[in-house]
What does this fold into?
Amino acid sequence: MSSKASVTVLGSPEEVRQRWQEDGLRPEYIESRDAAVSFKAAPGDRGTEIQVDLEQTAPGGKLGEMLMKLTGKEPLAKVKDDLRRFKAQFEAGEIPRSDGVPEGELAERKLKQRPAQPLKEDELEKAGV
Amino acid sequence: MRATVWSGRNEVSVETVPDPTILNDRDAIVKISSTAICGSDLHLYDGYVPTMKRGDILGHEFMGEVVEKGKGVGNLEVGDRVVVPFPIACGNCWSCKQGLYSVCENSNPNSGMAEKMFGHSTCGIFGYSHLTGGYAGGQAEYARVPFADVGPIKVEEDLTDEQVLFLSDIFPTGWFGADLCDIEGGETIAVFGAGPVGQFAIASAILMGAERVIAIDQYDYRLQMARNKAGATDVIDFSKDADIVEQLKELTGGRGPDAVIDAVGMEAAHGHGAVHAMDRVKQASRSETDRGHALRDAILACRPGGIVSVIGVYGGLMDKFPTGAFMNKGLQLRAGQAHVQKYLKPLYEHIRNGDIDPSFVVTHRLDLDQASNAYETFKHKQDECVKVVLKP
It folds into this structure.
């Protein structure tokens, strides 16, 4: 199983590196895992390639890995969530939310989508809106 | 509010659901004045698109009045009359900056799901499964519109809803299909499918300067609309003769059309005995998602060195792709969900100038509460149905 995840963000490596540390944008999960992160200029002014390497296997062996995948708690899936959220905030200024996924991209939601219809008031509070 | 929800295969109902609210700064809420059922909604209705969930609000063609907006929406005011494009796009990512709005890199909050299916994520789409984000659709009284500073176009009051509503999808989609054909003047273009998108592909090809446009369908009333309203110069009714490839060759002195537009997609109705039967069995057992006769015939009919433009919706995999014909004839295959945002202004100008009146496709006007009947009528092509407009 790969331990790496990448995303390209439309900005210079200096700017991306700086905003990576900004409050509200800082990728909490990646930081908490103390993962190796690299920032590299993409060819043709396409922005910056961010690569995260977890460099460790999932605890609990194969079975643990499968359980985590099913529940959306697999470390790499959470790293990818962090990367997508960072990219969206950096580029679009907000994390896209839908009715099905009101929190924004979230691995735990993959198998637990809400129906695509507006949220009730108590759900809005829970989703942090 | 009242909204049209998907309740399972071949089942939609109009139910009372919570009103939408602003979730992000770049959102607006639109009070819907007109909304339409798209041919691609039938793929959802028929149950061929995965990741639908009971309770999903359908609909990606809608317009209305801005009634609320987030603080990030500077270009619209409450009270503005707008048409909303079906792709949700941020306008900031590299793809959006290239004008490739339907592959926006940020607007799909289920991008992880989409990557598994398609290798990469595509944009979010209103009311079109969870694979494209799980966004509530617009066959309802109200809709929340994300990135409202990028998508919606303001429209003037002297044009009717039916003249501008189809800027949301089918007019730009048909235009996009013709745009992919590199029309410079004098070409012969064949269009598979004379449904609403096919009608606009025909009309667009003519506006761009194609000399002959051949419409292909199995319903005479649709072919008549293609000839009399959209401007097709020739028609092929495959209910009378199923060998479309041969007929296209006959109509073009053996050359084949310069470009062929597939405005059919995954539920093609024609096809030849054994292959069609196999496609139906495989699709019913979900071992193949896409019935591909239209695309196969498009590739076989297109002249060597020509272009095959795919705007009909496909969802997964098809069998028996004619790789030999595709490769040896040196064809170009081009495709996509239309980058609607890119075409809104020029197409609005075409409507304003009177070059085209898109309302010609409308055959049925119903109350939103009639949505369930409307889906059945449209699906079974009853009552010479081409396009249904619903009024909330």
User: Anything to note?
Assistant: The interface with chain A takes residues 3, 5, 17-21, 23-26, 51, 53-57, 72, 88, 90-94, 97, 105-113, 124, 127, 130, 133-137, 144, 146-147 of chain B (CB under 8 Å). The radius of gyration of chain B is 20 Å. Chain B has a mean pLDDT of 95. The domain at 2-168+341-391 of chain B is CATH 3.90.180.10 (Quinone Oxidoreductase; Chain A, domain 1).
